[in-house]
Amino acid sequence: MTSLLAAALLAASAPAEAADAFAAATGREAPAIAENATAAEILNVCRKMTPATITVRGHINRRSRHGTQVAAYGYTLTRKDGVTDLKVTDKSGAEIAFEKGGRLLDTDVTWSDLSLDFLWWDDVAFDGGGDAESSHGFICKVLVVRNGPRAVKIWVDRRTGAILQAKEVAEGKVVRELFCTSLKKFGDRWAPRNIEVGPPGAKYRTKIVVESVE
Which pick of 28, 84, 96, 108 has the fewest CB atoms within 10 Å? Predict the structure, then answer.
């Protein structure tokens, strides 16, 4: 399985009532993405979630099928002048080695899930013949970004510019999925608050919780 980025950033698997509440909260805001925006313009809007300089803090939880917590980590992602640094710690605060392109120990989380590095791939196009899709009440623009053999399909909420879903595709098959189960506004930007990642069809995924974006 190729490592996903893929991630990162998701897609509204939130229930209908959550979608209604979100719509009410953003009802007074102009859509972040124009109806006639190009694929490159939409990707540029998404990049505001992880600009050249930013610090993101959060935690990662993995539970068994019985609901028992089997892994818990904290993380701090720092981007300075476009260079990304990722620090992951265990419950005691000890730093854990986490190689770029690798997977975090006993979780489904990859470097790409936390860094959303696929947003900086330049090969981008609309997916198929349609550039809009409705998912649980969210109107999305659907893009495909590519970097060599890797391809990631992403759903972008037109109203906020946030990623709601990402799927990495290899040889025509989905090999990895990332879903946003809730959005939050951090300062002047909307971004995923809760993210679930894992292989397609997984009943129990690893959850990433974003606590702060500075």
Answer: 28
Please name the residues in contact with 92: beta carbons below 8 A apart, sequence gap of 6 or more: none
Question: For residues 86 and 84, what is the distance between their CA atoms, to the nearest angstrom?
Answer: 7
Other CB atoms closer than 10 Å to residue 88's CB: what's the count? Answer: 22
CB contact set of 205 (below 8 Å; sequence gap of 6+): 108, 179, 196, 197, 198
Structure tokens at 41: 């313009």
Domain ranges, ordered by start, for the chain: 16-50+103-213
Residue 95, pLDDT above cutoff 90: yes
CA separation for the pair 86, 90 (Å, rounded): 14
CATH class of 16-50+103-213: mainly beta
pLDDT of residue 202: 74
Residues 6+ apart with CB under 8 A from 135: 11, 12, 155, 164, 165
pLDDT at 121 over 90: yes
What is the structure's pLDDT at 186?
85
Record the tokens describing residue 32, joined without a space.
């972040």
Does this model's pTM top 0.85? My answer is: no
Each residue's pLDDT tens digit, 123-134? 999 987 556 666
